[in-house]
Amino acid sequence: MNSAPARRAVRAAVLLLAGTVALSACSAFSDATGSGDSTGSDGAPSVAASFYPLEFVARRVGGELIDLTVLTGPGQEPHDLELTVAQTATVAGADLVLLEEALQPVVADAVEQNGTGRVLDVEDVVALRPVAEEHEHAEGADEHAEEDEHAEGDGHDHGDEDPHFWLDPLLMADLAGAVAEELAAIDPDHAEEYSTNAAALVEELEVLDATWTSGLADCERDVVVVSHDAFGYLGRYGLDFHGIAGLSPGAEPTPADLGELQALIRDEGVTTVFGETLAPRALSETLARDTGVDTAVLDPIEGLSDDTADEDYLSLMEANLEALQEANGCR
Fold first, then answer.
1. What is the pTM of this model?
2. What's the sign of the alpha-carbon dihedral 301, 304, 308, 314?
3. Strand 223-228's sheet: what is its strand order?
4. CA distance readout (Å), 109 to 29, 88, 139, 154, 247
5. Do the Cβ atoms of 50 and 56 come closer than 8 Å?
6. 3 state SS of 302
7. Does residue 281 sit in helix, strand or coil?
8. Is the pLDDT of residue 166 over 90?
């Protein structure tokens, strides 16, 4: 990962170039004429965001200037997305599709087969974190449990990269600049507004990053047990995350995996096992009960639920920080 000064310079440069067409991010999916100024029937650029973190950035950068559709609905696990016929048509007709192939290859496939507009894949903007070798056992268990042919294409096989980039506020800031650039290429008349909106969001995300850095600077414990390996990007704040399941919340740990986690909880003095909002909490609650520790919720912010419908990415990140501070005795 780049140093903080270098990354700030990159984000600044991206915003200054908001009117420049990002050919490397969309050349494979540009329209037949190569024009960058296509818009929806009402004049607003039509944008399809594949899941919540991308929706959040698009909404903050595009505001009321864009016509935004989200492919993964509230309460739906993004790992499990299967596109309907109507959603496939939305992807085909969108001026811009925001996706992450590492998390939802089904959307990338739909764009490749039917897309006529521009596309921004997260992997064109940020360097995804390699999967830690020590957590690969859970992914392997998941693969063996899914024996039908559909398993290879259901969005659960993340390869060697961790797709949960949005839990790093600075990577979200990088994405904001790239989204502004894409929207400006489609709708150059509003390039300044997109750039201004992105700059405001980047500032908020950098403040959030600073809050996390200071908030976790002095903690009694640094080991955190979570429901699945979604939180690795938070490791740069000094915490060591251990997932019950693999990168997909549907992965099943082996008895040996659970035994190792029980020993870890005892040896490290872990006080809390974290479940999450969009996935069943049976495993985390059982592990907590077996080891005599508390349970709490740490939201991977993959999507909103009924309980978090009034929240947004920023407020959920703040709630996550408070939960980790309490569990780890941070001062």
1. 0.82
2. positive
3. 240-245, 223-228, 272-275, 294-297
4. 12, 10, 23, 12, 21
5. no
6. coil
7. coil
8. yes
Q: Comparing C-alpha atoms, which of 233, 194, 179 is closest to residue 49?
A: 179
Question: How much is the mean pLDDT over the chain?
Answer: 85
Domains 4-128+163-210 and 218-328 share a fold: yes
Q: What is the pLDDT of residues 203-213, one digit of tens each?
A: 999 999 999 99
Residue range 218-328, CATH number? 3.40.50.1980
CA–chain centroid gap for 116, Å, is 25
Q: What is the mean pLDDT of residues 143-147?
A: 40
Under a CB-based contact definition with an 8 Å cutoff, are residues 243 and 293 in contact? no
Domain 4-128+163-210 has CATH 1.10.357.10: no
Q: List the domain boundaries for the chain.
A: 4-128+163-210, 218-328
User: pLDDT tens digits, residue range 240-264?
Assistant: 999 998 777 767 899 999 999 999 9
Q: According to the model, what pLDDT value does residue 34 have?
A: 31
Please count the other Cβ atoms lying within 10 Å of the Cβ belonging to residue 294.
Answer: 12
Q: Is the pLDDT of residue 179 over 60?
A: yes
**8 Å CB contact between 100 and 79:** no
Length of the chain: 331
Whether 243 contacts 226, CB under 8 Å:
yes
